[in-house]
Amino acid sequence: MNNYEEQLALYAKNANDALRERLTFKGTCLQMQVIDAMRYSLLDAGKRLRAAFVMEFARLCRAARGDAVAFACAIEMVHAYSLIHDDLPCMDNDDLRRGKPSCHKAFGEANALLAGDGLLTLAFETAADASLPDAHIVEAVKTLSRAAGIFGMIGGQVIDLASEGKQIDLQTLNLLYELKTGALLRASAKLGCVAGGADSQMIEAADAYAKACGLAFQITDDILDVVGTAEKIGKPIGSDNENHKTTYVTLFGVEGAKEAAAEQVELAKKSIATLPDNQFLLWLADMILTRDH
Question: What is the pLDDT of residues 242-263, one digit of tens each?
Answer without folding.
Answer: 667 899 999 999 999 999 999 9
